[in-house]
Amino acid sequence: MSTDDPISGSDQTLSGAADTTGMLQLADAPLVARYLTTFIMTALATAVTVGLDREVAIPNLSLIYVLPVVTAGAIFGLGPSLFSAVLGALAYNFFLTEPRYTLIVNDPANIWAIALLFVVGCITSAIASIARRNADDAILLRRQMMLIQTGSHEIGRANDAKTIVSAGANALEAIFHVPVIVMELAEGGVELVERRGNLQPTELESEAARSSLATGKHVVAGVYPFDASRFDFWPVMKKDAWQMIVGLAFLPQRRPCDPGIMVDVIRGLLGAALVGEHARRFPSRH
After folding, report:
1. Which of 198, 201, 199 is nearest to 210 (CA)?
2. Cβ neighbours of residue 254 under 8 Å, at least 6 residues apart?
3. What is the DSSP letter of 152?
4. What is the pTM of this model?
5. In sequence order, what E strands does 187-282 have?
6. What is the DSSP string of 123-142?
7. CA distance readout (Å), 208 to 192, 196, 278
8. Tell me: the pLDDT tens digits for 232-244?
9. Whose CA, among 7, 132, 150, 176, lies 20 to 30 Å from 49?
10. What is the DSSP-derived secondary structure letter of residue 201?
């Protein structure tokens, strides 16, 4: 007999998912906060550079400005990193090249030094930004896998159709952080059985849901003939037929590149759990 506690295991999964979510929050900080933090980091680099320049003669002192560029790229992305590169080049010109405290450059060698600093900053910011995106993708995937694991436990523990559907809706909301609806085929159309978020499906979206059920295929939001639909719809198999459907309302500017992979896992678990629940209720029919 296994000694694993599924509830405590689920709690650990949720804790791990929360940790990875926290790691992604810096990249999703408000735009003003990201640029202000980048400005402060560049200002600190300037203070260090000016202080060192007064005390000792260090060659290539301008490379200190690469540090905030890399940090901004790794944490906040390409925009703040490029912003830091521009600020660093201007600060180096203003504080460290003659005549000081102006943006005028008398020595052609300093012009090349400033230009090189800017180019190095741009290249570094691009590399750091790509590395951050790759790291974010890995963190997001790990978080989603944890939430799928938690969702599968909750769906598997549910002992009636309503609890199964509720657990599936919870899992989809946790994975994607978007409004979720679950609808079921009814006489004359579809009816809403679960909703997460504040979006109520319109008649057009109910029609899109019926179309998805009729064809057994994914219907994408904002695509003809359902141009005004806000929800993507995926049908769910129930009692050997497409009888239930899940809908997710993604923001167009933050739509995942391939949400169907994660949705397919949850809707597959939903369908299997609903078929199993039906078999338990009506054993003589199977």
Report:
1. 201
2. none
3. H
4. 0.63
5. 189-196, 232-238, 241-248
6. HHHHHHHHHHHHHHHHHHHH
7. 13, 19, 27
8. 999 998 766 778 9
9. 132
10. P
